Every structure is written in C-alpha cells, then in structure tokens.
Task: structure prediction
Amino acid sequence: MNAVVLASGGLDSTVTAAVARQEGWDLYLLTVLYGQRHQVEVACAKNVAAWVEAKDHKVLTLDLSVFGGSALVGDGAVPKNRSEQDRGGGIPVTYVPARNTVFLSLALAFAEVVQAQSIFIGANVLDYSGYPDCRPEFLQAFQEVARLGTKLGLEGRAVKIHAPLLQMSKAQIIQRGRELGVPFEMTHSCYDPDEAGMSCGQCDSCLIRLEGFRQAGREDPIPYQVQ
Amino acid sequence: MNAVVLASGGLDSTVTAAVARQEGWDLYLLTVLYGQRHQVEVACAKNVAAWVEAKDHKVLTLDLSVFGGSALVGDGAVPKNRSEQDRGGGIPVTYVPARNTVFLSLALAFAEVVQAQSIFIGANVLDYSGYPDCRPEFLQAFQEVARLGTKLGLEGRAVKIHAPLLQMSKAQIIQRGRELGVPFEMTHSCYDPDEAGMSCGQCDSCLIRLEGFRQAGREDPIPYQVQ
Result:
C-alpha cells in the first residue's frame, strides 16, 4: 500500500515519515521548494528519503515568492529571539499563504499517479497554533476535497490525510523520533540558515526545536550559529 | 474589491474573466504553467490580462509532469477525432491528476496576499463530465478548505469560489462571451497545437469548441490545422 509523505527535511516531517514507514506503507516522498530561504532542506530531504527507503522521491519547485506575502518567501525579516509568549500570539509573519493547502494539493496529484491510499503530513497544532492550515478541521476539509476532486475518490478509493504528530508537543515528537531511530542530525528546522546552511539558533523554529530537545532531555545533534 | 481569476488563455477562462470584470471586481489573473504542451496559452493569457485591464497577472511555473499520469502532461497521446459518445465515457486520459485542486490552492495563496474576496474559475460540468474536479460539490468542498485553511478565513473574510460557467453549454458560454465583447481570437483551447501554436482541430477540446461555435451560429475566428 502506497503513501505520499510531504518531506521538508525538517524534524517533524522526518518523524512523520518514520511513523509511516513503521506502519508498513510503501513511501513516496514529496519535497516542495517554494522559494524559501532554506533550500538546504532539500539535501536533508534526500538523505531522509534514502533513510526511509522511499520507493520514489520527487522534488517540485514552486516559486510562491511571486506572490510575496510572508517572511518565509522573502518579504520581510524573520523574527529572532522571541519569547514563547510573543511566538504564541496570532498568526506569525512566517505564515506562508495557503501553504498546507498548496502542499496537500500537490501531494494529492502525486497520490493519484502512484495510486496512494494515504498522504502523511507533519502538521502540528501546538507549536504552530497561529497557522490556520495546521488545524484538524482544516485537514478534515481537505480530505473531503481529496474525496470529491479525484479519480481515486470517484472510484471509492479516496485518499486519507494522516497527521500523526498533530496533537504532540515538540518534546513528544522528539521522543517518538528517538523510538523510531530517526537520525536527527539529518534534519533541519531553521527559517534563516547562513550560506553554509548552519541554523541560526534564534528564529522561532530553532527556538522551538531547541526547547523540545531540552524538554525531551536530549541534546540536539545539529550545530547552531548561536545557542 | 479584489478577485483572483484562473486564466489559462482558453475560451472558458477568458469568458469567466469577462464575467468577473462586468461584475465590477478588480482582477488579479493567475496563469499556471503545468508542464503542458500548449505553452502558447501563456501568450494568450497575457493578451487577455491586458484586455480585462487586470491589476496584476502572475504566471507560475509548476512542473506537474514530474508526476506523470496524464496525456496533458506528456504521458501518452492526446486522443483525436473522438465522437461525442466516446468523449462522454468515463474519465478522459487528458485528466490531469488533482489539477483544479492544485490550481485553486495556488489561487488561494494569491488571494491571501492581495486580500481577494473571490476566486473565479472557468470550471464546467457539461463539457467535462468526466473530470471529478469540475463538479459543484468539489468546488463547495474547496470553499470550505479556503475558509478553514487561511488567515482570511480566520478573520471572517473567507474567499468564495465562483464558477459562473459551471452549468452552461459551450454554445451558451460563447454566446455570453459575445455579449461581453470577448475577443475570441485571443483565446486558445487546443490540447495539442503544432510548433507555431496552431490548433489541431481534432482533439476533444478543439472538437468541443468548434461544435460550440456551430451551435451558437458563429464562426470561430482562430485558424485550425484541420477543420
């Protein structure tokens, strides 16, 4: 049975791929390059694809920066060293317009071609409470689109959306990854790495990751510019 | 008030743009290049954008051919000279996996950035009965995704999906386009044009278009290789 996994090379999507592999799916990884600053994630995603023994790994370039509208696609500075309280308030500037809708729709296209029964996404409500497209009701609505808008759905084989990390804390995700033997040194989370690809240690994503490792009582194996 | 219009340079999307313009929206056109054979449509879309006085026109390249899976993205021959009966049966090989889901998700990203209240799409159930993602229930489900998965939706300004041609025959679409002064010579429908961009006159899309003009009692102003 085939499953498409959205794989950014980040910590969450890598643990998600590991969960899918443990469940016994044949994995088809999809990495979407969306004009973000951290193209280093592609190299990570390739290593992850090899590690999970993916049947196939597609890398799709999609220049969302033509629309502008978010710090992650080049319009505005990535905020640094924000407190947990500041990070919790409202929709972050790193929100990419309709990102998960776009990602899931591309995963759906891939799923139709490889006749996959499932799409796995590393969406998470706790650390990304400000992102509307990480909420369970959004994922449920997208599953309905997948059922109604595809040949697979018409044939009664609608694709299911799986978000196994949806309700987990970062520490729980790290713990789950450890149990599954995830090579965290392969993964990458920074919104704003330097030219060599080294994580900044100060953006929201780095801070959440570092706190997650601390709470899990583990050391993050990747190097940081500042920590 | 802003509206995003999915504009392929084809007949249906051009009439759709004309309808949106007549309703008084400020138009933001989006053309998605998805590795299809008929990139000539971009040139058409640019002319259409000028004709409807679009505030902006974005052209986004998205190589869906990496997934394979359809005649329109380079995997298999485009069928020619099929009867209406043959064309009506099941899902055509020209069906592109999850195409409208992908297009609408990109339109949604654009809509978030320009704070659009509407997305217009030239979807049509009659001529494309085999395409699951041209059905009203699919469009309704996508509207729910747009409401739940975006910042605009969270703020109570959810984007509406408009498909003004949904229940019209091709002859009715042509008639509506005539009333709105649509320059049909700017538009292009062929799945398999020659290198100079001339329409084949034999693929399903050409046959449907030509029959539509006949039924509307009009002459199609574009040239064909065979007619």
About this structure: Chain A touches chain B through 46 residues (CB under 8 Å). Chain A has one domain: 2-215. Residues 160 and 224 of chain A are 37 Å apart (CA to CA). The helical segments of chain A are 11-22, 40-51, 84-88, 99-114, 136-148, 151-154, 170-179, 204-215.
